[in-house]
Each structure stands twice: as structure tokens, then as C-alpha cells.
Amino acid sequence: MDNELKSMLVKILEGQNRLETDVSGLKEDVSDLKSEVKKTSIQLEIIGTALKSVSKDVKEVKESIEVLKDMTGRHEVDMK
Questions:
Q1: pLDDT, tens only, 20-57
Q2: Quick one: three-class SS letters along the chain?
Q3: CA distance 58 to 47
Q4: Phi and psi torsions of 73, nearest 5°
Q5: Burial letters 26-38, b for 16+ CB under 10 A, else e
Q6: Residue 68 CB contacts under 8 Å (≥ 6 apart), including other chains
């Protein structure tokens, strides 16, 4: 019975060590994922800022075109 108990304890300890290793690996994976999410968030923020800037520029170009149409005579521009 003593050997059986020792064998069971060894198996339990081996299982515990495996679980600790798995948990440690999972912690690293979670840390890596958090880092990736942060990078992606920053990139999305940059893209959003760039998009707002481009949208503003496009609006200004459209307004300038309207002014040019009015200055050159709208009927001449609309015909082309």
C-alpha cells in the first residue's frame, strides 16, 4: 500500500507540474494578446485621425471647386 500511495502522489505532483506549466504558458499568451490589442488600438486611432484629415481636405477641395464654378460661369463647367 505504501508503494501505491507513493505512486499516486508522484502522479499528482507530475500533473500539478504540468498544470503549472500550462498556466504559465497561458499567462504569456494573454500578455502577448494584450500587447497586440494595444498596438492595434493605437493603429486604429492613427487611421481614424488620418481619415478625418483626408475627409476635411476633400470637403475643402469640393468647396474650392464650387467657388471656381461660380467664378468661371457655372453653365460652362456643367456643359463639359
A1: 999 999 999 999 999 999 999 999 999 999 999 999 99
A2: CHHHHHHHHHHHHHHHHHHHHHHHHHHHHHHHHHHHHHHHHHHHHHHHHHHHHHHHHHHHHHHHHHHHHHHHCHHHHHHC
A3: 16
A4: 100, 110
A5: eeeeeeeeeeeee
A6: 77
